Amino acid sequence: MSISRSGLALLAVWLIATGTQPQRGAQAQTMGPQARQAATASNAPAAANLTAQPLKLIPMPREVTPGAVQSLAGGVHIDCPSPCPAEDMAAIGDLKAFLAADGIATEAPAGTSILVMRFGSSLSKAIYRDSLRQPNTGDADRPLEMPEEMKAEGYAMIPDGKGLALTAATDSGIFYALQTVKQLVTGSGANAVLHTATIRVPTLL
Predict the structure, then answer these.
(1) pLDDT digits over 97-150, tens only?
(2) Number of helices and strands (H, E) in the chain?
(3) For residue 131, which of 29, 35, 91, 153 sits 20 to 30 Å off, Cα-Cα?
């Protein structure tokens, strides 16, 4: 994966800001899956969809709209349509390890969905179109093509009713999108939730 200097700087800021995460994951790994589940089951969210809450992302995208908060008590299902590039599979594997360390099942067919797509297909173009914040325009007035200046490291993400759907033109974009997904997950085990959101990075004026 090729990441620019600006991209490396952004990643460094993210790693510093989330420096407590590895410790939290290490603590989770000291407990078995059944112990984690038992410890959190009594406090599990009562509903699958909770009220949208303010997001705390680093760096904070200029174009971000919070969506519903979904319980991850039933785990997640991460889908990357075939052929899924090796670089994207590696980034997905990193996300799965992060979630598993917090007691969140990552191979749950009926769990919350995270759809990961390289830009180019009709569905990926629809994801990009729906990420544009133009509430007073119809679909026909919103572009389907991702601008060239966005393709190097940018991505688009939307709530899709099942969880999140995201698309990017490059492995760098997919990587950054999944790092953002990590920040959208709070809690652990049966208490874990996903803060869905509509995000487009970078913002194009």
Answers:
(1) 999 999 999 999 999 999 999 999 999 999 999 999 655 555 556 778 999 989
(2) 7, 8
(3) 91
> What value, to the nearest 5°, has the Cα angle with vertex 190 and ends 189 and 194?
85
CA dist., res. 69 & res. 3, Å (int): 31
Question: What is the C-alpha separation between 70 and 114, in angstroms, rounded?
Answer: 12
C-alpha 5/C-alpha 11 separation (Å) is 10
Q: Higher pLDDT residue, 50 or 63?
A: 63
Residue whose entry in the numeric block shows the structure tokens 């994951």: 25
pTM for the model stands at 0.73
State the DSSP string of 125-164: HHHHHHHS--TTS-GGGS--SPPHHHHTT-EEEEE-SSEE
Tokens of 155: 């991505």
- Report residue 166: phi and psi, to 5°: -140, 155
CA angle 185, 12, 21 (to 5 degrees): 35
